[in-house]
């Protein structure tokens, strides 16, 4: 009898524990809860902690209250200037109304699917009204704000708040990019060829000017050299003439020595001259004089008596 009573008590305790366990549930800080009674929503729990429900009657759906990501696949958009763009965008959103979220989309996967459609439509609508330059450079921030506002208006019906929409990449399609690249390359090559031509022209001008200046400088230098050479030769001839007039015998001797040196320089010198030639007269007699040579002007000058100085003529 006692065993039967103990067994019954144990069963009752176990049933009570099961009922208590089924009537309690926890909500974490990253979650919010929607309580359903026989499939009908009765309340929303947003505070974290331990909460109670009616076992076997109430059910709890936990919904994430963190910021969620919506990754949108790349798509082509035609801008207002008829240029095709490959746009890669993403969105960040948060569930702010669990009841409406549950009634409209049900799950996060369903929300992502619906939001992707809304985001694509808004992208095409806003970017289709803008130019290529506005999208990639000038008005990018404003365009993203407009897209976010439009998506947010439609997402409010899902119990969702769109926090941000960003265009990760907006570029031309691959074929267009290659065409633009080729056009840019051709333009740069044309500019490079033009700059090279201008450089070649400037180099030719500088080279021609330098050649002209060098020709003028060389001509002036040659003229100066010829002038100096002529003056030097004139001075030399004058010195020779003065030396000849002072001592003709020594001058003949000196000039003959120069002639001997110039004619006997080579390693194989051959001269066909008679032994008694006038050219070799200084070989036999260094004091030789040509026939009819005048005496040195110094001797008669020394032998001549001194002449008295002429009287000075008074100046007028």
Characterization of this structure:
The protein is of the alpha+beta class and 316 residues long. 54% of the residues lie in helices and 19% in strands. The protein has helices spanning 2-23, 98-104, 108-127, 132-138, 140-155, 174-246, 248-263, 281-284, 298-303; strands at 24-27, 31-37, 40-45, 49-52, 58-64, 68-71, 75-78, 84-95, 160-171. Strands 6, 7, 8 and 9 form a four-stranded antiparallel sheet that branches. A three-stranded antiparallel sheet has the order 3-2-5, with helices on one face. It has a two-stranded antiparallel ribbon with strand order 1-4. A hairpin with a 2-residue loop joins strand 2 (31-37) and strand 3. Helix 3 crosses helix 5 and helix 6 packs across helix 7 (248-263). The longest helix has 73 residues, at 174-246. It is rod-shaped. The model is unreliable at 290-316 (pLDDT under 50).
Write the layout of secondary structure elements.
Layout: H1 2-23, E1 24-27, E2 31-37, E3 40-45, E4 49-52, E5 58-64, E6 68-71, E7 75-78, E8 84-95, H2 98-104, H3 108-127, H4 132-138, H5 140-155, E9 160-171, H6 174-246, H7 248-263, H8 281-284, H9 298-303
Antiparallel strand pairs: 1-4, 2-3, 2-5, 6-8, 7-8, 8-9
Helix pairs in contact: 3-5, 6-7
Largest sheet: 4 strands, antiparallel
Strand content: 15-25%
Oligomer: single chain
Report the end-to-end length measured between terminal Cα atoms: 187 Å
Q: Spell out the helices and strands N to C.
A: HEEEEEEEEHHHHEHHHH
Average of per-residue pLDDT values: 79
Total beta strand runs: 9
Secondary structure category: alpha+beta
Computed CA radius of gyration, to the nearest angstrom: 61 Å
């Amino acid at each position: 009898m006692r065993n039967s009573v103990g067994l019954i008590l144990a069963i009752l305790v176990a049933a009570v524990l099961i009922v208590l366990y089924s009537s309690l549930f926890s909500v974490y800080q990253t979650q919010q809860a929607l309580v359903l009674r026989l499939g009908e929503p009765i309340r929303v729990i947003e505070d974290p902690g331990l909460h109670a429900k009616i076992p076997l009657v109430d059910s709890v759906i936990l919904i994430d209250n963190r910021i969620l990501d919506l990754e949108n696949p790349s798509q082509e958009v035609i801008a207002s200037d008829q240029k095709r763009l490959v746009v890669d965008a993403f969105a960040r959103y948060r569930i702010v109304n669990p009841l409406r979220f549950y009634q409209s989309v049900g799950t996060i996967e369903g929300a992502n699917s619906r939001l992707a459609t809304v985001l694509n439509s808004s992208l095409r609508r806003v970017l289709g009204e803008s130019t290529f330059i506005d999208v990639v450079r000038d008005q990018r921030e404003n365009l993203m704000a407009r897209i976010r506002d439009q998506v947010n208006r439609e997402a409010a019906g899902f119990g969702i708040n769109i926090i941000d929409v960003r265009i990760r990449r907006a570029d031309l399609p691959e074929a267009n990019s290659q065409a633009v690249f080729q056009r840019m390359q051709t333009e740069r090559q044309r500019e490079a060829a033009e700059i090279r031509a201008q450089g070649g022209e400037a180099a030719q001008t500088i080279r021609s000017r330098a050649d002209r200046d060098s020709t003028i400088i060389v001509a002036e230098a040659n003229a100066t050299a010829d002038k100096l050479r002529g003056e030097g030769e004139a001075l030399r001839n004058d010195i020779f003439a003065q030396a000849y007039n002072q001592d003709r015998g020594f001058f003949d001797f000196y000039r003959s020595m120069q002639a001997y040196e110039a004619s006997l320089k080579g390693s194989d010198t051959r001269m066909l001259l008679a032994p008694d030639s006038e050219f070799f007269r200084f070989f036999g007699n260094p004091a030789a004089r040509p026939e009819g040579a005048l005496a040195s002007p110094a001797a008669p000058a020394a032998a001549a008596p001194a002449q008295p100085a002429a009287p000075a003529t008074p100046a007028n």
